[in-house]
Specification:
Length: 173
């Protein structure tokens, strides 16, 4: 079984690692302290038990997902600025059917990993699988989950740099 290496910006890696440590601390503390205090007075309530179980299950799922993501990441290594699409690149594409453009980071989508105003596209999605190795200006035909074909043009491919994105987003917003 080959393990897929996930590209993460250094800042995203630090945020996700911090979140994982926090969740693991919460798990170790169990339901003592702050988590239990919010349910004081409702301890006999069946709904409260369900809420606690649901919260615990969600936390465990998130821990598992973060552990998988952080198991073997490629951290902070900018891809070359060569106009070729690959994980870690901010890509601008044009949909040929309606001429709309879209800019996104080709990276695994993870809540809180990247700025909220930066869209991401998973390398595991149909579009994400069609892009790696493609060059600026290249037309790409890929298949949507419903079986229909979609044609796009890769207009721009540049390495993601958090500091440059933050400055651009602040100037633009």
């Amino acid at each position: 079984m080959t393990e897929t290496q996930v590209w993460l910006a250094q800042s995203a890696y630090e945020r996700l690692k911090s979140e994982l440590m926090k969740l693991l601390r919460q798990r170790a503390e169990g339901l003592s302290g702050h988590a239990a205090e919010q349910f004081v007075g409702d301890s006999a309530d069946h709904n409260t038990d369900q809420q606690l179980l649901t919260a615990r299950r969600e936390r465990e799922n998130r821990i598992r997902k973060l552990q998988e993501l952080l198991q073997n990441p490629l951290v902070g290594q900018d891809p070359p600025d060569d106009g070729v699409a690959e994980p870690g690149m901010v890509l601008t594409i044009r949909y040929e059917d309606d001429q709309e453009t879209e800019t996104f980071l080709l990276a695994h989508t993870e809540e809180g990993a990247y700025p909220a105003d930066l869209m991401t596209c998973s390398p595991d999605s149909p579009l994400g699988m069609a892009l790696p190795g493609r060059k600026q200006g290249e037309k790409i035909l890929y298949t949507l989950p419903n079986g229909q074909a979609m044609e796009i043009t890769l207009l721009r491919a540049v390495p993601y740099r958090p500091e440059a994105w933050s400055a651009t987003a602040q100037v633009g917003g």
